[in-house]
Design a protein that fits this description.
With 147 residues, the protein is of the alpha+beta class. The chain is built from three helices and five strands. It has helices at 2-17, 58-72, 78-103, and strands spanning 39-52, 105-115, 120-125, 136-140, 143-146. β2 (105-115) and β3 (120-125) form a beta hairpin.
Length: 147
């Protein structure tokens, strides 16, 4: 009975800890939006950046459960508890990596704009519309519009 509670606690910990393992797909813009309002500028650079997709945590949960079940089959007593815990952790890590590899990498576009009042601002987009280097743009609500 005691080992069942320990196993359930380990599985719950692994499930909650997987939420910390996710990554954002695209970084936020480099500069704060506070007080900018509408700005105008010129596109200075457009670069393609490879970013890994965000994992949902499902792979880590399934991997943790499978690893815990496999580890639970080992011996008995303290060794069984240790093997169960190690199986949960190893399974969660492996499951998260498998999910990450299945989702693959994707390209994002970082558009750098020189603002008329000075300074550079960067914006990340999943797809690039009709923006080109040298285009005049209007910046409203953290979005670029050709102007």
């Amino acid at each position: 009975m005691k080992s069942s509670f320990a196993f359930a606690g380990i599985v719950l910990f692994a499930a909650l800890a997987t939420g910390c393992a996710t990554r954002q797909a695209a970084p936020a813009p480099q500069y704060s939006q506070a007080g900018y309002g509408t700005q105008y500028g010129v596109v200075q650079n457009i670069e393609t950046i490879r970013a890994q997709s965000q994992t949902s945590g499902g792979g880590a949960i399934v991997g943790g459960v499978v690893g815990g079940l496999l580890g639970h089959q080992v011996d008995h007593g303290a060794r069984k508890d240790l093997a169960t815990g190690a199986g949960v952790v190893a399974g969660a890590l492996i499951g998260n990596e498998i999910e990450k590899n299945n989702r693959g990498v994707r390209d994002i576009y970082r558009v750098t704009v020189e603002v008329e009042r000075g300074g550079l601002r960067s914006f990340d987009y999943a797809s690039l519309s009709d923006l080109r280097v040298g285009d005049r743009v209007r910046i409203e609500n953290n979005q670029l519009y050709r102007w």
